[in-house]
Amino acid sequence: MAAAAISLKGASKTFGSDRNRVDALVDIDLDVGQAEFLAVVGASGCGKSTLLRLVAGLLAPTRGEVLIGGRRIDGPDPGIGIVFQTPVLLPWRTVRRNVELQLDIRGISTPSARQHVDELLNLVGLSGFGDRKPYELSGGMQQRVSICRALIHDPSLLLMDEPFGALDALTREQMNLELQRIWMETRKTVLFITHSITEAVMLGDRVVVITPRPGRIMEIVPVRLPRPRDFSALRVPEFHIACDRVRELMNAAGFTE
Fold first, then answer.
1. Staple partner for 221: which of 33, 50, 207, 256, CB 3.0–4.6 Å?
2. Would you state the pLDDT for residue 194?
3. Which of the 8 DSSP states describes residue 215?
4. What pLDDT score was predicted for residue 44?
């Protein structure tokens, strides 16, 4: 049997000590399958971003372990791509050069890698925008550039930390559909952090509900909806069953969407 794409075994993270001690995450046990789209929901400060940083190797667990593909990680993993809430594009670089930043950092300069930039820009609907500067793009277009940058080195795992949280509602809905399409074409394993119940259920194969700090897994809710999904799914009973269960759990923990 193939190893899980991500495994957390008793993973806990504590910041500070004594009176300044903050238990961010406690005893997280979680397996994410290969090519699975896993959504994680919870209120601000519940440890969602800490969980992502543990998986990324940007933080080390205080207790327990994190494995990627069955291998314990002890630092940033080259097989991971990360998309944050804001695009963090370099304003003096063109769209193409912002995507190529990952290649520059990794010392990759092959013609095929450079050609892959054009393929990714086409994949996210930015063909013809390679020579534009970030200020010439809308917020949604900038976030598409950041997705390309995260995918340019062909990672097996894509980590997304509330990537659409700063977008307006209509652009966010469009980006939800775009991300699903990209995921279905690339079949990457995705760990997607959000505080939106609707977004989590629309995108996820399963939804992990995290308690308020200290963050623990309250329940993992399956989403039994066929793909591809669009917003007509909001009228399907299975969508409401999953949303209602996630909301019930969040209400029980003292917070709502």
1. 207
2. 94
3. B
4. 81
